[in-house]
Amino acid sequence: MAADRTPPPRIVCAGLAKTWEGGLAALRPTNLTFEAGQTTALVGPSGCGKSTLLRMIAGLETPSAGTVLIDGQPPAQLLRAAGLSVAFQDPSLLPWRTVRGNIELALSLARRPVDRQAIDDLIAMVGLAGFADTRPAELSGGMRQRAAIARALATEPRLLLLDEPFGAVDEITRQQLAEDLPGLWEARGTTTILVTHSVTEAVMLSDRVIVLSPRPAEVVADIAIPLPRPRFAQDARSAEFGQLADQVVAALSLGRARHDGPLAAQ
Ligand SMILES: Nc1ncnc2c1ncn2[C@@H]1O[C@H](COP(=O)(O)OP(=O)(O)OP(=O)(O)O)[C@@H](O)[C@H]1O
């Protein structure tokens, strides 16, 4: 898995909006820039439109209005060049392939060399050592999610989009992944956008947290997380960490209050 020397991309969403057929609005017109090499967390109430935003950035969903440009190009370009990886809540592993087989396929599709040792290292890093030759049906939900994370990382994407990738992962493994993953994508130079329901995880992993309102989503707050790295689970007990987490929680409440308030837009 040779390192991709192309620098990580900058993503510009301009007037990006989504209204589903039938008129359900998921995202109000939104301007957002994701800086090259940064990790950004998107947090917001369930159903507010986080996944919709992420899927439009991935080029998997067509915007109703506005554009997504990744280094000035539409997402499809990066997707075709295998520079973009996504890992979703529901890991879509091929059931007839083992964990290693799923990763090998991703590498082959991305026309990347298949380095068995590097694959095994990645499998071990997500806590699946000993399960490389196991098929998805024999893994727990959390293990499948970790396999999907390993697969997403294997191609060394320039842009990594993670949609609640730790949803089914147990707390201890979650903490371990939250400690290990940022170092990996920092070392490789990756722009990462992460959807999570966990405020602690958002602050732990990110350089910036964007808080979205209830549906149709709009940006309520854009909070920089200037905490030094690497960050460890116990750092979540520091005063600085607590203050940042409180800001995120306050923004979530503000979004809800605005949404439910008498002046809420229809
Ligand atoms: N393919 C689709 N067709 C129609 N409506 C959709 C579609 N996908 C999502 N929606 C609707 O769009 C809204 C936003 O959904 P989305 O999945 O983006 O929310 P989310 O913030 O990611 O939710 P959660 O945190 O619960 O995963 C929801 O009301 C959902 O029902």
TrEMBL record:
SUPFAM superfamilies: P-loop containing nucleoside triphosphate hydrolases (SSF52540)
Residue spans crossing the bilayer: none
Keyword Transport: yes
CDD domains assigned: ABC_NrtD_SsuB_transporters
Domain ABC transporter: 11-239
Gene Ontology molecular function, alphabetical: ATP binding; ATP hydrolysis activity
Pfam families to which the protein is assigned, alphabetical: ABC_tran (PF00005)
InterPro entries per the UniProt record, alphabetical: AAA+_ATPase, ABC_transporter-like_ATP-bd, ABC_transporter-like_CS, ABC_transporter_ATP-bind, P-loop_NTPase
Keywords of the record: ATP-binding, Nucleotide-binding, Transport
Keyword flag Nucleotide-binding: yes
Family: Belongs to the ABC transporter superfamily.
Protein name: ABC transporter ATP-binding protein
